[in-house]
Design goal:
Blueprint (H helix, E strand, L loop, with lengths): L2 H37 L7 E5 L4 E5 L1 E5 L5 E3 L2 E3 L11 E6 L4 H11 L12 E7 L1 E14 L2 E12 L12
Antiparallel strand pairs: 1-2, 1-8, 3-6, 4-5, 6-7, 8-9
Length: 171
């Protein structure tokens, strides 16, 4: 193979990877809206969240628990849900107290770096540095871990376990 052929093949590979990267972002956005419009019961709160200091949110519709940030990327733009979520701190959770279109769009815009800070939105409850919290359903509710649907449950317990895994990070 000539160097010109190798260069062309490398460029084609980069273009393909870039196209796949943006296609995945598009698929993520499509799946989020399809779920919101067609598959998720938005008629009533689904669960309560009780955290270690005794505070309880009784009207949770949707929640995201994080131990790192950004949550994901849309293209090359980070989707920053809770910037304080790091591997050096406790768990962070944002609980949506409404799944109306306007609050969802406002939250997404905030996570993409547009609009008001997520913590200032009245339909969201943001907690950080938690060592544990419990989610109790008002009946069964769906849940997923790292994007994988795991079924429905009525009770979840989250516990921060510092240094449970040994991570090798680049210098």
């Amino acid at each position: 193979m000539t160097s010109e052929e190798a260069s062309t093949r490398t460029l084609a590979g980069k273009c393909l990877c870039g196209a796949i990267h943006y296609a995945v972002a598009d698929a993520f956005i499509y799946a989020a809206f399809a779920t919101w419009f067609r598959h998720y019961d938005r008629s009533r709160p689904r669960f309560s969240v009780s955290e270690e200091h005794g505070a309880t949110i009784d009207d949770g519709y949707f929640a995201i628990c994080l131990n790192t940030n950004p949550y994901t990327y849309l293209g090359n733009r980070p989707f920053d849900v809770i910037p304080e979520a790091t591997l050096d701190r406790g768990l962070a959770i944002v609980t949506f107290r409404s799944l109306g279109l306007v609050p969802l769009v406002q939250a997404a815009a905030s996570a993409l770096g547009f609009g008001r800070d997520l913590r200032r939105q009245k339909h969201l409850d943001v907690r950080t540095d938690l060592s544990h919290f419990v989610i109790d359903g008002h009946g069964p509710f769906p849940y997923q871990v790292d994007g994988d649907y795991l079924g429905e449950t009525e009770h979840l317990v989250f516990k921060h376990e510092p240094e449970i895994l040994k991570l090798v990070l680049p210098a």
